[in-house]
Here is the input.
Amino acid sequence: MINKLHHYSQINAYQFVTFRTLASVDDYLLKINDSTLNESNKQLHIDNYLDKSDKGRVLNSEVIPLVLDYCKTLETEYYNLICISVMPNHIHMLFKQNKNMPKIVQKLKGGLSFLINKHLNQKGKLWDENYFDKAIRDESNFQVTYDYIKNNAVKAGLADAKIRFYGVFE
Here is the structure.
């Protein structure tokens, strides 16, 4: 398990959030987490590694629409969804938060765990306990984050990249 990160929560703030499957966490991720890199660089290394890792890849085929549909159902009570990318072992989201971040993440992970475990006929903990969040500072940061999420599956070379992304501007 990766050490807990500091989290920022402010109603009406735009947030970039990433969370990963528990089975994707391995020695490499633990090593990066313990490194002296700043949090943004750690997250970049982690994301790049997860894009290539075969560990914890359960977010595929018919699971993808389950994830997208569920995340859309939390609008507008929990957040205003801007975009989401469902990678095989992690999820990136950009949204404007309408509730405190811990409530949003608890609702996301809890609901998705129930749906995915039921669909895959499995039990147990699906998600790593931690998550990464970063408040969006300005319009330029918003655009860079949106583009990163939009292009993540394409950059990772996933054949089904088109169905893994949802964005309000598309």
